[in-house]
Amino acid sequence: MRLHLKPGQKGTKPLLAQYGDRLIWGRYRDDAQRKKRLKTAELAEPDWEPPGPRFAPDHIVGLRVAFADVEVRDRVKQAGGTWNPQRRAWQLRYDRVVALGLNSRIVDEAASNSGCPRSSGKNLHADAQAPSTVGKDAHIYCWIPASCGR
User: Fold this and answer.
1) What one-character-per-residue DSSP string does 49-76 give?
2) Which of 64, 87, 92, 113 has the most CB atoms around it within 10 Å of its CB?
3) Rounded to whole angstroms, how far apart are CA atoms 28 and 40?
């Protein structure tokens, strides 16, 4: 960062003329790769209001909790969470998710084992490959969806 200027300082007149009272800072920075000086303006938006909550407080949301994450899973259970095998996710009221600080774990879709977003999971038999044998009695089953194009 080369310059960090308040409104009214030398070098901010064009920004002040363009943005007026909304201007908070003007910044100038040199880009060595492109050999250019970049100008940025930080603006205040007085009419802006933060978006409301994503869900109603009593809305049931899905949560992704790893199997090995026993501590979080126990907290979800204590808060009244239940496991939904169809969605492969824990379900809990949104207000309780916020209280537990688990917002980042909210999921919109069911979990997938395929690793391929295009796979619907409907054609497991058609997508499955034949088992390969390793050792005397071991079998390894590998499932790669045909729709992934791998």
Assistant:
1) -----SS-TT-EEEE---TT-HHHHHHH
2) 92
3) 7
pLDDT interval class at 65 (50, 70, 90): very high
Tell me the CB-side half-sphere exposure of residue 123, using CA atoms within 13 A. Answer: 11
Which pTM value belongs to this model? 0.45
* Contact residues for 117 (Cβ-Cβ < 8 A; gap 6+): none
- Residues 3, 19: Cα–Cα separation, whole Å: 19
Written as six digits, the tokens of 55 are: 């869900």
144 Cβ contact partners less than 8 Å away, ≥ 6 residues apart: 114, 127, 129, 150
Identify whether the C-beta of residue 122 lies closer than 8 Å to the C-beta of residue 116: no
Could you tell me how far CA 104 lies from the centroid of its own chain? 7
Give the whole-angstrom CA distance, residue 92 versus residue 61: 6
How far from the centroid of its chain's Cα atoms is residue 109's Cα? 13
DSSP code at position 93: E
